[in-house]
Description:
Oligomer: heterodimer
Number of helices of chain A: 10
Strand content of chain B: 15-25%
Largest interface: A-B, 26 and 26 residues
CATH architecture of the largest domain in chain A: 2-Layer Sandwich
Number of strands of chain B: 11
Shape of chain B: globular
Number of domains of chain A: 2
Structural class of chain B: alpha/beta
CATH class of the largest domain in chain A: Alpha Beta
Shape of chain A: globular
Strand content of chain A: 15-25%
Number of helices of chain B: 10
Radius of gyration of chain A: 20 Å
Largest sheet of chain B: 9 strands, mixed
Largest sheet of chain A: 7 strands, mixed
Order of helices and strands of chain B: EHEHEHHEEEHEEHHEEHHEH
Number of strands of chain A: 12
Radius of gyration of chain B: 18 Å
Helix content of chain A: 25-40%
Amino acid sequence: MLSSIEGLELVGIADKAANRARNLAKRFRIKNTYADYLDLLDEGLDFAVLCTPSHLHGQMIVDCCDRGIHVLTEKPLAHDTETALAAAKAAKLQRVKLCVVQNYRYCPALRKAKKIVDSGRLGKVLAMIIVAHTPHPMTWTHSRWLYTAGGVVDDFGPHVYDIMTWFGASSPQVVFALGDDVTQRMDLANYAHVSVGFGNSMHAAADLSWFSGSRVFAINIYGTGGRLQIDVTSDSLEEVHGLATPVTEVMSSWHQALHTIREAALGRLLIGGIAYYDQLYDDFVRYLENIAPAPVPLLDSLRAVQIMDYSRRSIVQGRALRPLTLPEELI
Amino acid sequence: MRTVGIAKTDYTHVYDGVAEAVEKAGGISNTPDRICIKVNLCDCRTPETGAVTDPRFLEALLSYIQSSLKPDRIFVAESNATSARPDLIMKWLGYEKILHRFKATWINGSRALTRPVAIMGRHFKQLDVPEVVLDSYLISLAKLKTHMLTTISCGLKNIYGLLPYPRKVAFHPFLDDAIVDANLAMHPRFSIVDGIIAQVGTQGPAYGVPIRANVVVAGSDIVSVDAACCKLLGFSPFFVGHLRKAHCSGLGSIRPEIVGHALEGLTINPEYRRVEKIAFSVARMIRDARSQSRASQM
């Protein structure tokens, strides 16, 4: 995707596993490979993309900022609030542009939902209920860095927290989470229920699981003026005001059928979130060129890390927690 | 040879069910010294979904083998797959305790020593096979499942999972042939299928609908056992590609002789929507074609 952006030169790729770096470089015609990412950062880069395990993001961002290199990092911004704040401060100090990959913000159904919410058609948003039941990460990575105590809270959770902050547009005031290990042998949370109260009296709840028999990423948004039902997996949206009548349901099924046929014809079925990367990368480059705003505001990413961090702590402590207020200079 | 034993049971009486099915099928012959049991850990799913070998069933089979055959060594094997790491899954499902109790050794076929085996295959002329499999009496312990690509996933498909190559998804364009070739190379001697919780529907083998079918199917002809399973799931064995090809390749007979419960009363509703299967196949083809054209443009 990056190699297809006009005017962009891929300088090199760094990976501790030299073989993997060489294979990727060969596949994408990248000239240089590095075993140590610091050697790559010393090559005079304009920006770096971090696709590393989340507990490494914080330090890598600081290393980029120290060299004046702009950063696009995979989610989350960092593994915990303190590291995320340190990374954000480093970016601010060095005037570096720092952005987190939140590809689901480019899901057409979610963008449409955001427009509807912003237009006021839903009135005041009262609640968001998000269900994200995803397969075990073993299906997409052979790496084991996700098998930490946070488990599902750290895996798909950051996408969900970002959507909460995107629609919530306010600081999380209270976080309460329940989580457990379905197998009782993995020693991590492979299902979790996260509840967040925002400062603007909106509430959000997320149900996360690696072991559910349904593979679903669905969002319901309830406002004083109506509700939205979004199926992110199939990229569909339903807007309901008042009672959902049989006519509403028939129309909805009809629209869904047409949508499915169109997506199948365009070869976009079963692709998922990867389909939205192109647009995000384009927008990030435009952001660097000062012709577009940040695809994902840094403040939202900080709030998302807060929700993740405090969810993890809440599961361990078994009680609701109040996240610390973010420093004013970062807001 | 074509005899297939069928027993009705549940997990509370699973030992009795295993013993009944195996004995009706004529028993495990030749009292082998080394036995290798191929379990099914195709995805990181829990046993009540019907997607993976239930530890209670494995325990019952190990108990039966140890008490009736007394082999010198027992191995329990599975290989890595595109989306599964069985070394972890077996721990999470609680296999370790069971293996320890029966002094059985865990083998990951992808990490074990392999030996090339020459075959007159439908696609391959040679396949790498874990050595332990070649030196042992191989038993397939499969689940009774439907499969999006191969219609059913029982004994033959289970043995295919033991090929040591982790990215077996690369074989999907010729999957039926690859399944037959894997069985030609590994030559399973006995097949037992756990259908106590079966999995049906178009989204198998990992995300189908769990059904309590309460049935165990066993036999020394893996093709006959699969053919019986096929009928249990409501399909004709002749119209299941890898079964028909296995029959033609001489791996076994597609016409089982059932001993025990008649199939008619046991058939479960597979909830298999062929339209959905076709739609998935078409969508996959378009997606693959698009990603290939994108890759060639780079």
